[in-house]
Structures are given as C-alpha cells and as structure tokens.
Amino acid sequence: MLGYYRVTGANAWTVAFVLLANDGAGAFVEEIILRGIIFRITEERLGTCLALAISALLFALLHLASPDATLTSAIVAGFEGGILLSAAYVLTRRLWLPIGIHFAWDFSQDAVAGANELVRANLTGPSLLSGGDAAIEGSILTLLLCLMVSAYLLLLGVQRGHIVQPPWRAARQRDPA
C-alpha cells in the first residue's frame, strides 16, 4: 500500500515443499511444547494472565537464539507470537488453531523473506514500518495487528469462560472472609 514491498522475481515452486516440511514440523513441535505443555501447566498453577506473560517471555527468548535476532526483534516476536498463539489456545482450548496460525505465519514469512523464499522481493522503507532486518515480522504495524487480534481472541475466551484465575484469587472468591 505504501510502495515499500516490490516483487523482483520468483523461485521454483518446488521450494514450497521445503518450506511446508520445515515450517509445518517447526510449528507443530513448538506448539506442542509451548502451548500444549508449558502454557497449560503454567496456566493451571498461575492463571491465564501470568501464563500469557511467561509465554511471551519464552517465545521472545527462543527467537533471540535466531541467527539474525536482535533484542528488539525478539521482544516483538514475543509479543506477536507468544501472546497471539496463547490467546488462540485460550479461545479454543485445543492446539489446532495455534499450530495453524504458527504454521501460516512461518510459511508466509519464509516464502517472502526466508533463505528458501518462493518470491524474491525488496522490502524498503522506514524500519518501523518495514521491520528492517526482521522483515515484516518486526514492523510496528504487524505488532499492532497481532496485539489487536490477540485482544479479540482473549475477549472471546473471556466470554466463553476460558480464563483461568490464579489459585490464590480463586480461593479468595470461594472464601470471602
């Protein structure tokens, strides 16, 4: 829309097989571990709000280990992915939605900005909008969009009664004395 993204070519469509395998397996394994095990257990012990914060922190730390990561890109990834994917789990209480979102995110990112990209393109413009070295994943626009979607998913989760209170708060509600 702003003219910062220009397609300059394309690679063979067979590159998609590599992306599908890598991104599919990565999303599946990460979501089983991060949402299926860590988030679920943390949420049972500390409640949904603290589990969301811990999930964002863990997701940021994992992305800090990426070769081209910066502290800023890792923090942004933590907010975008850690909260969005956990909010998807809170809404459905199933792993299919976070796995699907994670896969679609990684595939889209890799298809246009990865080492085995399907589409060769130039992404220019101010780093705040283009994401700089982190590509569109590091853009303030992407961050805002992810936070808005996360808030919407969490609101739906609240309406469905899927928010877990921490044990100390739940105990206080049962025993108002």
Ends distance:
58 Å
Radius of gyration: 18 Å
Largest sheet: 2 strands, antiparallel
Main sheet: strand order: 1-2
Give me the strand/helix succession. Answer: EHHHHEHHH
Enumerate the spans where pLDDT stays under 50 for 5 or more consecutive residues.
none
The average pLDDT value, as a whole number, equals: 86
Percent in helix: 55-70%
Structural class: mainly alpha
Q: How would you name the oligomeric state of the polypeptide chains in this document?
A: single chain
User: How many β-strands, per DSSP?
Assistant: 2
- Per the principal axes of the C-alpha atoms, what is the gross shape? elongated
Number of helices: 7
**What is the strand content?**
5-15%
Description:
With about 180 residues, the chain is mostly helical. It has one domain (about 10-170). The protein has helices spanning about 15-45, 50-65, 70-90, 95-115, 125-130, 140-160, 165-175; strands at about 5-10, 120-125. Strands 1-2 form a two-stranded antiparallel ribbon. The longest helix has about 30 residues, at about 15-45. The chain is elongated and about 65 Å long.
SSE diagram, text form:
Elements: E1 5-10, H1 15-46, H2 48-64, H3 71-92, H4 96-113, E2 119-123, H5 127-130, H6 140-159, H7 167-174
Antiparallel strand pairs: 1-2
Helix pairs in contact: 1-2, 1-4, 2-3, 3-4, 3-6
Gist?
This protein is 68% helix and 6% strand.
Characteristic terms for this protein:
6% strand, two-stranded antiparallel sheet, 177 residues
